[in-house]
Amino acid sequence: MTYKLAAIPLIALLATTAIVPAQEMDKMWGTSVVKLRAENAKRGQLFADGNYAMFIHWGLYSQLANKVNGKTYYGIGEWIMNKNMANIPVAEYKSLAKTFNPVKFDAMKIAQVAKDAGMKYIIITSKHHDGFAMYHSKANAFNIVDATPFKRDPMKDLATACRKLGLGFGFYYSHNQDWTFPGGGNGPKTDEQGNPATFDDYFEKKCLPQIKEITSQYGPIELVWFDTPGRMPKKYVEELISVVRKNQPNALISGRAGHGLGDYRTLGDMEIPRQNVAGLWESVDTTNDSWAYAWYDEYWKTPKEILRRLISCVGRGGTYMLNIGPRGDGSVPERATRSLRHAGEWIRRYPQVVYAADASPWKHALPWGDVTVKDNKLFLSVFEWPTSGKLYLPGLRSKIISAQLLGDKQTTAITHQQSNGWTIFQLPPVAPEKLASVIEVSLDGHPNVDPTLGIDPSIKTDVLAELAQVKGAKLAQKHWMEKFGEWKCVHRVHHWTPGSKATWEVDVIIPGDYNVSLTYSGEGRLVWGVDIKGGEHIQNQQNSSHNYQTFPIGWLNFPKPGRYHVSVSCLKGNTEAASLKAIQFTPIP
Ligand code: FHN
């Protein structure tokens, strides 16, 4: 049988540089909320306890490293054969197998990097959209053992290495898309003899048998990570899931299996949520910009960025899976390893901040960092150390039993005081840690918090548009690609109409003037107004560009401590196109 791809086919969707509607992203990623069933939580013990995993994109495409016939293609490397990248014909792409010989692949070394990084399991591409199996598949000869000079199954080595080091192991599998097998999603429409091929052909001859293989040849695995279900009919997904359940009853299945049939939800690629997300979920991200190795891609995440993104995920209630893309020879780029290990050393000093930690009761990050929780303890990870010597924590209602600044060598008790519903911790002038310092706050019970946004009196407070109440304009998430396949997303307020506004309730501890700026994109000059309900109004004209940029608006006065409603309106210019991402308040010293 055949099935029709959507009105906006997946491939066209990925080719677009424009904003992609949220429903289409949902169809591509299958990110619609997965029902949290009790058994999911049980299966997901490693996932929920671990909170941090390694993703690996490695395949034939890694050999090309985004360069074909001397030309460099910018974007996600595993898509190199696609027509939006180098457009490599199927036969030509398949012949790459003849030269694929990853002699530098060292499974133990990779597993050790994951271990040193503090990751708890590894998920690797067993077959990506290109259809090449990175394991020994009896079902299809286009695989690393039968089609390459390497002739070995590196997945066996990696599964063994993970087990030796006490790491979980699992497979990525592209179940819908297969660009080289007749009938596969976005693949050839006819077989070698020119006969029409159907999705059924691909499913029965390749996909289903390969799922049986990867779930039966590598011992117990923790996870099967299906991807891009597109509009794959439900019956196929159900069949695959029943195979996984039968062969690996304890393995989790990613939400991208489709039709809400997975065990948990995977957010959009490279998406770190800004507000707490309920249920079992993960964010997937990569150490540079591409998933698979790309020779030019040297834009690495620093150890601090890795920790910030990891702790943001844990703080929002989820799990973080961070990708590396080994080279075609199997080696791993050193800069990725270095950043991962460096961040891992920090995690080893503060495991309680990350593993089995619960979401922040503030429900969003705070200006200086983030909060994670374990039982009656709060862990404040301070990424921006306040030079004022005071750390301001808004809205904590629970009684504090003790507060201490954790350190590698010593733990220092710190004092605190309460003022207008805020807790102010007295800190030494110099942070004990370079990446993030941790304050452990023990409470007399489970944390009780008022999550109202606080305006920090010592550092800049960035208040996101997605936390606003919006009237007369639209608040929606927007996804777009920076480079091909490099997804970005933002929640923004747009389509401003006369009288429309975005309003936040904020809590001020120290009254006075604050410098207000707005982060937005748009066309031409725009006039923005910022109001305090019952108080001051300021407005200003600034330019705009298609990229989100921050522009100053002016000073705004909060006359006394307490609660305020602050509103932003787009008053003049192309208000339809104006897209507000955030408002910032910077204290004036
Ligand atoms: O198309 C794939 C892409 O190549 C990569 O594997 C990512 C990882 O999440 N998943 C798909 C796009 O969302």
Note the topology.
Blueprint: H1 10-15, H2 22-29, H3 38-43, H4 45-50, E1 52-56, H5 60-64, E2 67-68, E3 71-72, H6 90-95, H7 107-117, E4 121-127, H8 154-164, E5 168-173, H9 199-214, E6 223-226, H10 234-247, E7 252-253, E8 265-266, E9 281-286, H11 303-316, E10 319-324, H12 334-349, H13 351-354, E11 369-374, E12 377-382, E13 390-394, E14 400-405, E15 412-413, E16 416-419, E17 422-426, E18 437-443, E19 453-455, E20 461-464, E21 469-471, E22 474-481, E23 487-494, E24 501-508, E25 512-521, E26 526-532, E27 537-542, E28 549-558, E29 562-572, E30 579-587
Parallel strand pairs: 1-4, 1-10, 4-5, 5-6, 6-7, 8-9, 9-10, 19-24
Antiparallel strand pairs: 2-3, 11-12, 12-18, 13-17, 14-15, 14-18, 16-17, 20-30, 21-24, 22-23, 24-29, 25-28, 25-30, 26-27, 26-29
Helix pairs in contact: 7-8, 7-12, 9-10, 11-12
The chain binds ligand FHN.
Descriptive overview:
With 589 residues, the protein is α/β, with parallel strands linked by helices. The protein folds into 3 domains: 10-353, Glycosidases (TIM Barrel, Alpha-Beta Barrel); 369-451, Sandwich (Immunoglobulin-like); 461-587, Galactose-binding domain-like (Jelly Rolls). It is 21% helix and 29% strand. The chain is built from 13 helices and 30 strands. The strands form 7 sheets. An 8-stranded parallel beta sheet has the order 7-6-5-4-1-10-9-8. The longest helix is centred in the middle third of the chain and has 16 residues, at 199-214. The protein is globular. It starts with 9 loop residues before the first helix and ends with a strand. The model is unreliable at 1-13 (pLDDT under 50). It binds ligand FHN. Ligand FHN binds at residues 29, 57, 76, 78-79, 227-228, 269, 284, 291. Residues 29, 57, 76, 78-79, 227-228, 269, 284, 291 line the site of ligand FHN.
